[in-house]
Design brief:
Blueprint (H helix, E strand, L loop, with lengths): L9 H7 L2 H6 L7 E5 L4 E2 L2 H8 L7 E5 L4
Antiparallel strand pairs: 1-2, 1-3
């Protein structure tokens, strides 16, 4: 059985898959979203904060269209 790399942060995995472009596609009017440490995107910062409360790593990253 292959070992799973538990040390790779979810945010790094999201960036490698070009996720910012995919999040903005269904909502072209949105200029910013918030990414939690587990890789879940949220359009409201308060929703991201609520979700992050349940995570070990409570980091939230603000992603804007200009960050791409």
């Amino acid at each position: 059985m292959a070992k799973r790399n538990k040390g790779t942060p979810a945010i790094k995995a999201q960036k490698e898959t070009n996720a910012p472009n995919e999040v903005f596609v269904p909502h072209p009017a949105v200029d910013v979203y918030y990414l939690t440490s587990d890789g879940s995107p949220f359009y409201l910062e308060s929703a991201a904060q609520d979700h992050a409360k349940e995570l070990n790593n409570k980091t939230i990253q603000k992603i804007t269209k200009t960050n791409q």
